[in-house]
Amino acid sequence: MHERTIPSHFVRAALRGAQRQGHDCTAILRAAGIQPALLEQSRARVDPEQFARLIRLLWEALGDEYMGFGPVQSKPGTFAMMCHATIHCRTLDKALRRGVLFYNLFPQAPDLQLQREGELARLSLDNSQLWDPDHFLTECLLVIWHRLASWLIGQRIRLEETTFSYAQPAHADDYELMFPCPRRFGAGSTSLLFQARYLDLPLLQDERTLRQFLKHSPADLLARPDGGDNLPSQIRRLLGRDCNHWPDLDGVARQLNTSPQTLRRHLREAGSSFQELKDQLRLDLAIYHLGRNELPIQDIAEQLGFSEPSAFHRAFKKWTGLTPGAYRAQES
Questions:
Q1: What PANTHER family does the record tag this protein with (predicted)?
Q2: 61 vs 9, 21, 268, CA distance in Å?
Q3: Which residue has the higher pLDDT, 199 or 208?
Q4: What CATH topology corresponds to 78-200?
């Protein structure tokens, strides 16, 4: 689909650091499955998988996760180590602050700051030391931090505003899929603004899910569009975390001002169902509790809305291939 493809502008921008260092970008493009001639067409677009492959190839060729745009290199594996440093934090606030501290330990790295502003929170990026003529790395870092934070808490963080310290570019219309919120150019800082309540939410991920996440990230975080306020995301937010008081399908439909029949149809079109969304949220919550050894499995089953532990055991094994006890043993 057109809206899931990547404009060629971002491909050209991604190559600027490698070109500056004298790398054979034609070979890199071909290895990514992108025809170099395609970039001569201003309106051309590439497949997200091709774009993700290109990012990984650039990291490999340059030995630099900053892709040649930073004053110093960020060695491959740096992002993964930051994730390992944050995954055991209890809340998103602690995780982001630890991640910011991790990167700020590196001299001349892009400076990150997390601040609360009343009911809002702002993650700011100082890109003044970057050689980033197209602002490619700047925008990549904003996307990665937003999507990483959303993944950590198991729900998309709705952005209130994204600000940029530079002028609006000619391709500004393409920013909708990266930053689906009000965007302000020529601002005093480059930042993401969101509700501070997200910072107090617990992390729903653990070492096990992180290993799977890091097989493809952060390259795939850059390649896929933001889910935005799509229907599954809206329903997940309406369900919340209290499984024993979840509204039924009719209740959710009423809150969304639609009929149950229409809601079912839209979910089918999105490749999901109401039950699948509930199961996925239960699984996220189960993994969160099992990874912390604070609650007996029977109590976890009750919190997740199962009538008896055996039902939880059967469901969890169906979802993961492991019983809750076996999963907890692997995590300990």
A1: HTH-TYPE TRANSCRIPTIONAL REGULATOR GADX (PTHR47894), HTH-TYPE TRANSCRIPTIONAL REGULATOR VQSM (PTHR47894:SF1)
A2: 21, 11, 42
A3: 199
A4: 60s Ribosomal Protein L30; Chain: A; (3.30.1330)
